[in-house]
């Protein structure tokens, strides 16, 4: 298919662009295969807006006489309005945008056409390989091994080719365990806590069914992570009720009788459409400026977004607490083990592991616990808050995770190497990007799409020094401790950087941020100067002494 | 009383055993813990309510709520002791004479001269001079020199030049409590002004020629404008109800060239109930997100804050953008009027956003114009219906502005919190009584100390590191959106959950930046010294031994200040989870401890850095009982670094 077929009117003049907090601008609108480009052709202060079609969540059109108006709502939650003269032009443009923003073939997406204008220093596709992770692990323990059981994605289609499992469990046993777990997602290592050797494993639900099926190998596998005489915790991210209901569909949970060394805790984290509804309501509340103070608070409350944040953070803190304070190993799972499970395991690592609070470490965490672990990004992030499609697999699971990270960052503003912008950038790229990183639903699909060969990795771009500097937190001071966030309602706030980004004036906050950077920059400069002078003085003094000695 | 337990509100497991002392001015709780002997001091004047709860097996619980939003829960073993404490506290918390208040016994060891200097720090005449007054349009009037016209006004009042004594006195007779229109703020650049008064006694049809002339005089003092706004800060319904009592509001037909405007700010009773409701939400043991948001909405608190801000914004816009003068009143003109005038001044004039200027602002719009501190904040035992968080709301408005304009204020959040604290503490004489007249009669300035001098002395603690005199946010008017940006108003946990340290961000950006700035200053000094030495050395290659020793001094000093940067990276008790955490088999005894020991056993084999871990755990315990600095914990943080640092941090 040629994109040109979809573009009936590639260009319109005298289009007026409206955005909140900006004056309306007149200019030319161009449509290309992947972009909507608006250019105010003013000589003095040319302004250009480039919008990826894949960033467009929904589009509305209306007419007053022959002046058409197109309202474009984006996945990054921005809303822009274009006034396009001429009914035919307007209709053509609207239908082109609609078609181009809902292409159903992945290989037509922009990442397959994008050619980077920058020099690639380090290929992001090869940055975070499981072997490297494992090497780090072997330096502290020899109880684990790298298994290539899933090399051809033959055992579990949503797992990566290699996984880390207890050394004492052979591949044959793993195969049996895979049959006992939903989607074959058998328990694998998620995190090793160096401080006390405790571990966090993750999996999907066991397929106990109504007749209480058991699997000796499964029991053996997870018991292999326990120290003699010690107990572990299973954190089930569903309520007991839902977990019990799952038995009727062949799923279920670990029975005490078969797992006597494990204590099961149920924490209810919502899924799918409940989360999507929550996002839609929240964004609606944020965009509605007409209501008064009371309505705002009640709408914020009714969206339940912050309730979900609190639930997820609480479960993650609980997992971290079991590991660090109780000195116990933990297994986390929900139903499929691809959503709430990953929220919990990745947030627990941010709390426990200082490495995950660095830029590099956080990238590695996203790769390990989200991309390689098989979070179905393409399904979950197909649409955002403005879509009308209401597909049942759409859910802001990853955005909720990023929001939780932001909450911790807000409570520990000096403990993270990255800043809020870094998290916002990841949110944007998960939903629409020129990079291939978040395409596909798992490693299996990514390898079939040949993403590493055909597209550019987000990390190749982000990790260049000129980009990286935008995402660095000037306040960062390495903090080797476990950081315990508060989950009290008073401590959790709306993430304004994402949800109010386009409808609040940010000038004064930006200025404050700049001021902060300058204060720290000036300090560093002075430090360098003082050090240089000290060295110079010391040299001169030695010279002098040598002369004296002569 | 011995063997009293102080409960931690957030986690029922944590409590401290200690001894309770009652002194003439304070309740003091000293923990038995031999190492720390942590002390909790509460001023009697801070106590807002004491509640004796039903006796349980462990003893008799006593709940003390403070006006600075601290909540203390004690369990006293003997019912009789508890009753005695309760009775004494009720008496002590409600003094009947001013002389019983703390400020008359508080002695910061300053001599007479220093005390007098302290009171001179804020001088309102100087302030009106700064505004450019007296000038061609405004003058000082001595009509109230013996409080003869209005006993709740100051002796020195600024009025339009054309307003004669006859007009002023006539107008005062037509205003509630004789609070005639007087100048609050004057804008040099365009002659527009903010005046304040109480409501007119207009009833349904009464008129007063002098009052009409007074408003005319205010309009004339701003020649560039042909009308003035009269802003009634009450809801229209309240104002209409007042007409039946012979009070009310200005009739546009009777006054030439006024534009009348209602801005619905609720009265003190609504505000008192609203705060009460919000504090109930803050006190919930482990509220869900919905409980909290629903309760916050239901309290209406943020709606009221927004109403005050909107009134302030309206006035600031009228003055700055339209160049129109404004007369503000409510009923008596000492609560809502004070709030609104001071918010508008703050928006208009960057001076009030400096530390000194803010003191002046409170002195001008609140203290001098007879805001009834004693009644509103219950310093002496009085009518509970008079109590209302009027200035608390103003202080919160300032905080909301600070959140929106992070570089615009010279002072930080701590400054606001401490001022709020001292409005209730009665440790300083500034906010005693209900009017200037009463304060003069009581000879407050001769017998007590001024808060402003105390704050000024410690001003380094109250600086906003992002403030720069030449920054754009510190110039001119702050331009706020009048549009309903509801989401800009947020719950202030730093104030209302002030003592629940666990709820706040664990690391303070302000403190961090202050430490950086302090270090920067030292570096600048060192740079200068080094530069000089270098020049000297180059000139006359001499005396290198002294240079060396001095240089070493410097570097140790610097090391100290950098350590400041590694601020409280303190792990804290994750209390909410402890509750949800299932208890383990009973044989294990005290859970926390055994878990700890077992962890350490495991560690011995794998982790060489054992000491740091155990320290860290103890640090957690420490903080959960709200130790002010969490020093013990910080020591552990980098046990590798030099010991100086740890000592410094623990202080």
TrEMBL record, chain A:
Subcellular localization, as worded in the UniProt entry: Cell projection, Ruffle membrane; Cytoplasm, Perinuclear region; Endoplasmic reticulum
GO biological process, one term: negative regulation of autophagy
Classification via CDD domains: PH-GRAM_MTMR9, PTP-MTMR9
GO cellular component: cytosol; endoplasmic reticulum; perinuclear region of cytoplasm; ruffle membrane
Coiled coil: 523-550
Membrane topology category: Peripheral membrane protein
Domain of life: Eukaryota
Keywords, ordered alphabetically: Acetylation, Cell membrane, Cell projection, Coiled coil, Cytoplasm, Endoplasmic reticulum, Membrane
Example of a GO MF term: protein phosphatase binding
One Pfam family linked to the record: PH-GRAM_MTMR6-like
Domain Myotubularin phosphatase: 124-499
Signal peptide from the UniProt entry: none
Protein family per UniProt: Belongs to the protein-tyrosine phosphatase family. Non-receptor class myotubularin subfamily.
Protein name: Myotubularin-related protein 9
Protein source organism: Tricholaema leucomelas
Gene giving rise to this polypeptide: Mtmr9_1
From TrEMBL, chain B:
GO BP terms: phosphatidylinositol dephosphorylation
Record's bilayer topology term: Peripheral membrane protein
Residues holding substrate: 267-268, 330-336
Major subcellular site: cytoplasm
Location of this chain's protein in the cell: Cytoplasm; Endomembrane system
GO CC terms: cytoplasm; endomembrane system
Residues forming coiled coils: 513-540
N-terminal signal peptide: none
Family: Belongs to the protein-tyrosine phosphatase family. Non-receptor class myotubularin subfamily.
Alphabetical list of PANTHER family matching this protein: MYOTUBULARIN-RELATED, MYOTUBULARIN-RELATED PROTEIN 7
Entry protein name: MTMR7 protein
Gene from which this protein is expressed: Mtmr7
């Amino acid at each position: 298919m040629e994109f040109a077929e979809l573009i009936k009117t590639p260009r319109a003049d005298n289009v007026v662009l409206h955005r909140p907090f900006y004056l309306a601008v007149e200019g030319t609108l161009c449509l290309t295969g992947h972009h909507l480009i608006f250019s105010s052709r003013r000589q003095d202060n040319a302004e250009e807006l480039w919008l990826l079609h894949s960033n467009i969540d929904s589009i509305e059109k209306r007419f007053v006489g022959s002046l058409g108006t197109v309202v474009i709502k984006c996945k990054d939650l921005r809303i822009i309005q274009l006034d396009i003269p001429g009914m035919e032009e307007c209709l053509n443009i609207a239908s082109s945008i609609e078609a181009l923003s809902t292409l159903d073939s992945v290989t037509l997406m922009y990442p397959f056409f994008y050619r980077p204008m920058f020099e690639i220093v380090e290929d992001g596709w090869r940055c975070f390989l499981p072997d490297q992770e494992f090497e780090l692990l072997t330096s502290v323990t020899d109880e684990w091994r790298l298994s290539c059981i899933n090399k051809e994605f033959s055992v579990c289609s949503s797992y990566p080719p290699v996984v880390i499992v207890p050394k004492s469990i052979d591949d044959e046993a793993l195969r049996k365990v895979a049959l006992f777990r939903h989607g074959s997602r058998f328990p694998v290592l998620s995190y090793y806590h160096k401080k006390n050797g405790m571990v966090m494993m993750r999996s999907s639900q066991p397929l106990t069914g109504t007749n209480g099926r058991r699997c000796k190998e499964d029991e053996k596998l997870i018991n292999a992570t326990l120290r003699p005489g010690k107990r572990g915790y299973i954190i089930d991210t569903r309520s007991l009720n839902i977990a019990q209901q799952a038995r009727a569909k062949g799923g279920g949970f670990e029975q005490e009788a078969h797992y006597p060394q494990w204590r099961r805790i149920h924490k209810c984290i919502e899924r799918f459409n409940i989360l999507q509804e929550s996002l839609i309501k929240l964004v609606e509340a944020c965009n509605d400026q007409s209501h008064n103070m009371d309505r705002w608070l009640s709408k914020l409350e009714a969206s339940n977004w912050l309730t979900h944040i609190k639930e997820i953070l609480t479960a993650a803190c609980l997992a971290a607490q079991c590991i660090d304070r109780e000195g116990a190993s933990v297994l986390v799972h929900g139903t499929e083990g691809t959503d709430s499970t990953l929220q919990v395991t990745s947030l627990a690592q941010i709390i426990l592991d200082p490495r995950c609070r660095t830029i590099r470490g956080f990238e590695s965490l996203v790769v390990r616990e989200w991309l390689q672990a098989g979070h179905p990004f393409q399904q979950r992030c197909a649409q955002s808050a403005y879509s009308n499609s209401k597909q049942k697999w759409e859910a802001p699971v990853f955005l909720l995770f990023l929001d939780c990270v932001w909450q911790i960052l807000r409570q520990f503003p000096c403990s993270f190497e990255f800043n809020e912008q870094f998290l916002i950038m990841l949110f944007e790229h998960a939903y629409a990007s020129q990079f291939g990183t978040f395409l596909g639903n798992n490693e299996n699909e990514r390898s079939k799409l040949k993403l590493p060969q055909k597209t550019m990795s987000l990390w190749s771009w982000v990790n260049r020094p000129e980009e990286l500097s935008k995402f660095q937190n000037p306040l960062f001071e390495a903090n080797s401790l476990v950081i315990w966030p508060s989950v009290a309602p008073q401590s959790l706030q709306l993430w304004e950087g994402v949800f109010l980004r386009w409808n609040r004036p940010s000038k004064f906050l930006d200025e404050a941020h700049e001021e902060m950077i300058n204060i720290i920059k000036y300090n560093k400069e002075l430090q360098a100067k003082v050090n240089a002078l000290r060295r110079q003085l010391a040299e001169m003094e030695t010279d002098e002494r040598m002369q004296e000695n002569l | 009383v011995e063997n009293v337990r102080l409960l931690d509100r957030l986690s029922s497991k944590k409590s401290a055993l200690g001894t309770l002392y009652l002194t003439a001015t304070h309740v003091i709780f000293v923990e038995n813990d031999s190492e720390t002997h942590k002390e909790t001091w509460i001023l009697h004047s801070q106590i807002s309510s004491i509640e004796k709860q039903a006796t349980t097996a462990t003893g008799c619980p006593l709940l003390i709520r403070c006006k600075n939003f601290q909540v203390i829960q004690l369990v006293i073993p003997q019912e009789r002791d508890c009753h005695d404490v309760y009775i004494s506290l009720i008496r002590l918390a409600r003094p009947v004479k001013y002389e019983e208040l703390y400020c008359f016994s508080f002695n910061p060891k300053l001599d007479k001269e220093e005390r007098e200097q302290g009171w001179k720090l804020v001088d309102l005449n100087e302030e009106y001079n700064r505004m450019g007054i007296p000038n061609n349009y405004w003058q000082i009037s001595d009509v109230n020199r013996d409080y003869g016209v209005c006993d709740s006004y100051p002796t020195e009042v600024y009025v339009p030049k054309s307003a004669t004594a006859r007009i002023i006195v006539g107008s005062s007779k037509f205003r509630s409590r004789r609070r005639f229109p007087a100048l609050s703020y004057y804008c040099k650049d365009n002659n527009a002004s903010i005046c304040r008064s109480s409501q007119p006694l207009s009833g349904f049809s009464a008129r007063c020629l002098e009052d009409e002339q007074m408003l005319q005089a205010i309009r004339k003092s701003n020649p560039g404008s042909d009308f003035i706004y009269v802003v009634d800060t009450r809801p229209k319904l309240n104002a209409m109800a007042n007409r039946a009592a012979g009070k009310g509001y200005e009739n546009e037909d009777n006054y030439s060239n006024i534009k009348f405007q209602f801005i619905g700010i609720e009265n003190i009773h609504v505000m008192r109930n609203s705060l009460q409701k919000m504090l109930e939400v803050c006190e919930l043991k482990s509220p869900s997100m919905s409980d909290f948001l629903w309760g916050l909405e239901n309290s209406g608190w943020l709606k009221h804050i927004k109403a005050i801000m909107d009134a302030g914004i309206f006035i600031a816009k009228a003055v700055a953008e339209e160049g129109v003068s404004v007369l503000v009143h409510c009923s008596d003109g000492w609560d809502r009027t004070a709030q609104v005038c001071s918010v508008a001044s703050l928006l208009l004039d960057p001076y009030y956003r400096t530390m000194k200027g803010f003191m002046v602002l409170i002195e001008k719009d609140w203290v001098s114009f007879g805001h009834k501190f004693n009644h509103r904040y219950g310093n002496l035992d009085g009518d509970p219906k008079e109590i209302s968080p009027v200035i608390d709301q103003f202080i919160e408005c300032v905080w909301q502005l600070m959140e929106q304009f992070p570089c615009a204020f010279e002072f930080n959040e701590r400054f606001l919190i401490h001022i709020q604290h001292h409005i209730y503490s009665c440790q300083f004489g500034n906010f005693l009584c209900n009017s200037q007249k009463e304060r003069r009669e009581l000879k407050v300035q001769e017998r007590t100390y001024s808060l402003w001098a105390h704050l000024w002395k410690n001003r380094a603690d109250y600086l906003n590191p992002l403030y720069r005199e030449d920054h754009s946010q510190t110039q001119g008017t702050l331009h706020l959106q009048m549009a309903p940006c509801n989401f800009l108003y947020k719950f202030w946990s730093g104030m209302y959950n002030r003592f629940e340290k666990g709820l706040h961000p664990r690391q303070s950006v302000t403190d961090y930046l202050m430490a950086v700035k302090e270090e920067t200053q030292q570096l600048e000094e060192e740079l200068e010294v080094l530069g000089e030495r270098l020049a000297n050395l180059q000139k006359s290659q001499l005396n290198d031994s002294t240079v060396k020793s001095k240089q070493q001094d410097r570097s140790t000093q610097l090391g100290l200040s950098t350590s400041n940067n590694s601020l409280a990276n303190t792990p804290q008790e994750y209390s909410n989870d402890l509750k949800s955490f299932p208890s383990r088999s009973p044989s294990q005894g005290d859970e926390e401890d055994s878990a700890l020991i077992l962890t350490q056993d495991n560690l011995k084999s794998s982790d060489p850095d054992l000491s740091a871990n155990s320290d860290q755990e103890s640090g957690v315990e420490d903080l959960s009982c709200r130790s002010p600095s969490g020093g013990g914990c910080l020591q552990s943080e980098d046990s590798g670094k030099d010991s100086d640092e740890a000592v410094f941090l623990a202080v």
